[in-house]
TrEMBL record:
Molecular functions per Gene Ontology: 5-formyltetrahydrofolate cyclo-ligase activity
S-adenosyl-L-methionine found in the keyword field: no
Pfam entry (one): 5-FTHF_cyc-lig
Keywords, ordered alphabetically: ATP-binding, Ligase, Magnesium, Metal-binding, Nucleotide-binding
Designated name of the protein: 5-formyltetrahydrofolate cyclo-ligase
EC number(s) per entry: 6.3.3.2
Cofactor section: Mg(2+)
Alphabetical list of PANTHER family matching this protein: 5-FORMYLTETRAHYDROFOLATE CYCLO-LIGASE, ATPASE INHIBITOR/5-FORMYLTETRAHYDROFOLATE CYCLO-LIGASE
């Protein structure tokens, strides 16, 4: 790995702590308001308006809320795929069938996740998506995303690239998480757009 790659990881850890600390101070009201606004903005995206299949995720804790968006996409007749965390941090996928189709799953000592309760479709199912909604902690002006550090979505993006799949990659964030620069490593891939409660920004 290059010197740049080695230097990036400590910088990323410090940035993650800072963004998570800000999120931890959000109130339940803040979370509800931003989730509603985020859903409205995201639903205006042409990439979602014309999608037949969207790979998304269920927000947890103080992440920008996704449940209103998932329900709206499902109501439109969009096939929504949701991740299932595997023991090696890779992601399997299942179809969303409404709020009652989610189950709370505890993964070791980490936080519990809401995952689809039905059939497992396999890690390759994400290749069928017209758009992939990504979690993150920040994105910069180049479209480089700062993830939480688990590597699950790095694997997803690498799998899409190997398969020659080219879905729209969209990260969902709070307004203050669109920043000038985040450290990037050679394997990092830029996203096409970021959606925040106040709007959409696209990258080249």
């Amino acid at each position: 790995m290059s010197h740049v790659g080695r230097a990036a990881e400590p910088d990323k850890r410090m940035l993650r702590r800072g963004f998570l600390a800000v999120r931890s101070r959000l109130t339940p009201y803040d979370l509800r308001e931003s989730a509603g606004a985020l859903a409205l903005r995201a639903l205006e995206l042409p990439e979602l308006a014309h999608a037949r299949t969207v790979a998304a995720y269920v927000s947890v804790g103080s992440e920008p809320g996704t449940l209103a968006l998932l329900d709206a996409l499902h109501a439109r007749g969009v096939r929504v795929l949701l991740p299932v965390l595997l023991a090696d941090n890779d992601l399997d996928w299942g179809a969303y069938a409404g709020g009652g189709s989610l189950e709370r799953v505890q993964h070791g000592g980490r936080m519990a996740l809401l995952e689809p309760a039905g059939e497992r479709l396999g890690p390759e199912a994400v290749q069928e998506a017209d758009a992939v909604l990504l979690p993150g902690l920040a994105v910069d002006r180049r479209g480089m995303r700062l993830g939480r550090g688990g590597g699950s979505y790095d694997r997803v993006l690498a799998r899409l690239e190997r398969a020659g799949a080219d879905p729209a990659l969209v990260v969902l964030l709070y307004d203050a998480e669109v920043v000038e620069h985040v450290p990037a490593e050679p394997h990092d891939r830029p996203v096409h757009a970021v959606v925040t409660p106040s709007g959409v920004r696209r990258f080249g």
